[in-house]
């Protein structure tokens, strides 16, 4: 089933010059970018994005971190994209993330764990609306025609 997920390369990823490498992983897997932007996040957007964590002790620090420097927001599409992307991202606490995952290869600290990805269909829909209120794109790539088209 074709799905769309919201992925953020957090400020640490931009500061560490890892944007291209992280995007490459998704492209190499066969996933399709349908939205992409670099933005300086407002406090309001960061708070809404992480509203589910508003009561956690780390929330103020998390909002401060997310607004500290520009980040990259992406809408990513593909077969089972939500689960596939979460698996590629790896465990929240990078020291528990498996090697081969983005966090397992490129991160060490939970407060700066490099990347966010939607964790389910409902959150994906809400997060895509939050980060891409202008909408995302629909287009066909050549690779879709021969490699990804259902039934070949
Ligand atoms: P995930 O980003 O894997 O969905 P989450 O939703 O549980 O993880 O937490 C959201 C973010 O909050 C996480 O990416 C980093 C931060 N965070 C979570 N637990 C934390 C902690 N114990 N200390 C500091 N930051 C934390
Ligand atoms: Mg989460």
Protein architecture, described:
It is a single chain. The chain has 152 residues and is α+β, with helices and mostly antiparallel strands. It has one domain (2-143): Alpha-Beta Plaits (2-Layer Sandwich), CATH 3.30.70.141. Helices cover 41% and strands 18% of the residues. The protein has 8 helices and 4 strands; from the N terminus they run E-H-H-E-H-H-E-H-H-E-H-H. Strands 2-3-1-4 form a 4-stranded antiparallel β-sheet. 2'-deoxyadenosine-5'-diphosphate (DAT) is lined by residues 53, 58, 62, 92, 110-111, 113, 116, 119. 2'-deoxyadenosine-5'-diphosphate binds at residues 53, 58, 62, 92, 110-111, 113, 116, 119.
* Strands, total number: 4
Q: Main sheet, how many strands, which sense, barrel?
A: 4 strands, antiparallel
CATH superfamily: Nucleoside diphosphate kinase-like domain
| Portion in helices | 40-55%
Estimate what percentage of residues fall within beta strands: 15-25%
Question: Which ions, cofactors or small ligands are bound in this entry?
Answer: 2'-deoxyadenosine-5'-diphosphate, magnesium ion
Order of SSEs: EHHEHHEHHEHH
The order of strands across the largest sheet is 2-3-1-4
- Specify the number of helices: 8
Low-confidence stretches: none
Rounded to an integer in angstroms, the radius of gyration calculated over CA atoms is: 15 Å
The CATH architecture term is 2-Layer Sandwich
Structural class: alpha+beta
Terminal CA distance reads 15 Å
User: Which class in CATH terms?
Assistant: Alpha Beta
Q: What general outline do the C-alpha atoms trace?
A: globular
Whole-number count of domains? 1
CATH topology heading: Alpha-Beta Plaits
Average pLDDT works out at 96
């Amino acid at each position: 089933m074709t799905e769309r997920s919201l992925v953020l390369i957090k400020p640490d990823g931009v500061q560490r010059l890892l944007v291209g490498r992280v995007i490459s992983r998704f492209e190499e897997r066969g996933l399709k970018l349908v939205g992409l932007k670099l933005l300086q996040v407002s406090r309001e957007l960061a708070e809404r994005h992480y509203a589910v964590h508003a009561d956690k002790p780390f929330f103020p620090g998390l909002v401060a971190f997310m607004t500290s420097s520009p980040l990259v927001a992406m809408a990513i599409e593909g077969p089972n994209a939500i689960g596939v992307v979460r698996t590629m991202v790896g465990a929240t606490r990078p020291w528990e993330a498996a090697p081969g995952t983005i966090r397992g290869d490129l991160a060490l600290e939970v407060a700066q764990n490099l990347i966010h990805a939607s964790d389910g269909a409902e959150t994906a829909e809400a997060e895509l609306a939050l980060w891409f209120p202008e909408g995302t794109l629909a287009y066909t790539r050549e690779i879709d025609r021969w490699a990804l088209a259902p039934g070949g």
